[in-house]
Amino acid sequence: MKINHVEGNNKGKIILYALSTCGWCKKTKTLLSKLRIAYDYIDVDLLEGKEKERIHDEIKKWNPNVSFPTMIIKNEMCIIGYDDEKIIKEIGK
Fold it and tell me: Quick check: is 89 in a domain?
C-alpha cells in the first residue's frame, strides 16, 4: 500500500485518509503544508481489493460514514471533513 509522507514539523503521528479527486482533501493537504506539519496520507480511491477494504475498516473505527477527508491525530482524535479552525487549534500551534 502506498503511504505518502510529507515532511514538516513533527506534531505526532498524523494520518490523512483522502481521495485523489476530492477538493476538500486537497485543501486539507494544502493547509497542513502551509502549517509545515509532517503527516502521512493515503489516497483511498487509488487502492484496490483487500487493501481498500482494510483501509475502509480502519476509517470506520473513527468515522462510520467513511467520508473524506478523515484525519487521525496521534491515534487519539479524529477530524472529519475540512475544518481549518479545528486543524489549526489541534496541531497548528
Answer: no
